[in-house]
Amino acid sequence: MDRAEKEDVVASLHKTFEDSSIVVITHYSGMTVEEMGELRAKMREAGASFKVTKNRLTRRALEGTKYQPLDSMFTGPTAIAYSDDPVAAAKVAVNFAKDNEKLIVLGGALGEEQLDIAAIKSLASLPSMDELRAKIVGMINTPATRIAGILQAPAGQVARVIGAHAASGEAA
Questions:
Q1: What CATH class is the domain 3-126?
Q2: 42: exposed, middle or buried (Cβ count in 10 Å: 0-12, 13-18, 19+)
Q3: Taking the alpha carbons of 23, 131, 123, 33 in that order, is the dihedral positive or negative?
Q4: pTM (2 decimals)?
Q5: Is the pLDDT confidence value at 46 over 60?
């Protein structure tokens, strides 16, 4: 990799760090290409990304970003998971690490707040933005359904009363 390519990588990573709301740092030692492909697919599905990084270039890309305090974590075979959704990258990384011991979650950051492994795991247990949106829509939709049922009930009662009155008139 020549100097120009390295500068492009640093600039690309710097933009990634500026645009992401969460960064999760992992070690991936011993993972096969197939396992990495599976992890990347799961990340894409959740709206997150997973990238193997060169530590020296990544530390340089961290300079001037809110994630600069993470530079000490970049040793060994390091990869980052990142996303705009504050939960997606953590959720996929932690769930994948449960099934595959070769992926080790080291920590990360949410905005300017540095997170340890326990904080990443607790963040991963939260519902994602899509799940929260679905719950809100469900909560909004439920009262509307109840209101429609209540509004229809009096009309139904009036129809039953008229039907009963008509039936009693025919019986007489």
A1: alpha beta
A2: middle
A3: negative
A4: 0.73
A5: yes
